[in-house]
Amino acid sequence: MDCTDLLTLCSSLREGLESLFPEKLWVCAEVASIQHRANGHCYLDLVQSEDGIQKAKAKAIIWASKYGMLSAFYRDATGSDITAGQQILVRAQVNFSELYGLSLIIDDINPEYTLGDAELQRRKTVERLEEENLLGAQSRLDLCVLPYRLAVISARDAAGFGDFKRHLLENEYGFAFEVQLFEASMQGANAPGEIAAALELAASPSGNPYDAVLILRGGGSALDLACFDDYDLCKAIALCPIPVLTAIGHDKDCHVADIVAWKFVKTPTALADEFISLYEEADAYISRLEERLRMAFASKISAQDLRLGPLPLRIKQAYAGKVALGESKLDNLESRIALADPNALLRRGYTLVTDGRGVVLKRVGDMRRNDRISVRMSDGTALAVVESIDVKK
Fold this sequence. Notes:
It contains 10 helices and 13 strands. The strands form 3 sheets. Strands 1-2-3-5-4 form a 5-stranded mixed β-barrel. The chain has a 5-stranded parallel sheet with strand order 7-6-8-9-10. The termini are far apart. The longest helix is centred in the C-terminal third of the chain and has 41 residues, at 268-308. It is α/β, with parallel strands linked by helices. It is elongated, with a radius of gyration of 33 Å.
């Protein structure tokens, strides 16, 4: 029986492929994995999938002499490095080695293809949510008049979360809020699943549910923010039983997560202003009611004075007593309104002490040594660390 040795077979394959593909080709595929070697070479696994099933796979190489230039060009155009999960369009030379097998030697890349694929996926997500009548699901929810308990989904060390918390909790009016962080990755392949899981946890039934769920991120490149166009994440936002507000930090087009959310703003700081403004409006409304009440009483007193003018002095004096009683009740009502204003307490010399989460501390026993606390006075807020505690027996 005739046989062919392996080297001869592989050499024939190489010669056949070289003659079949003498020119470089533009190839579109998904990056399954990417490795950067110490010598500067970049090795990729490229795949093509249909309905979640891989139909083709090939190894690809970008030599060090090309990789620095190509990666910088791609980053400038897309705002992101080449990463796993991206669809890319590359120019490659088909190469077959008797020792290492088939590979594609990449020497050029078209970043517009990657951006175009992301936009296509975004449109498909919007169309699918629209078909399922989910785009307006959040808009049918009602946000309470004065939202106090806020669930925030963000990375703990994210600058956007820090800006939001500082701006909200250190507001000049002294309005108090309770903020609870639910940590999640805010970019990359794992981000949609982690954010959706945090949403489910924040919305789980409890004795004291949250008034709103906030998704915060401080901006990023188009590809970094592509996770906010993920269908499963956007569906989770749409179906959340609590109003979801987003502040992703983009400068241009909104993402699908913004479209399905109850409301979206550009930055985390702007979202903090949204909640502060709700309390400002309520405070102004109370002040207007107080003024209207005062004017109504004054008008009624003036009218009664005019009616009492012709009456005998004794009757007029008797009625004046009722007027005085009404004025006393009015003064009492004004005092109660004033006492209800936390800013009035601060102006009288009282302080408002909160822990690191913004929760008001009412007893010394609620504190521990080395706790970080905020001491709010009429002219500002001081941050302190508890050195010792003396609890009265």
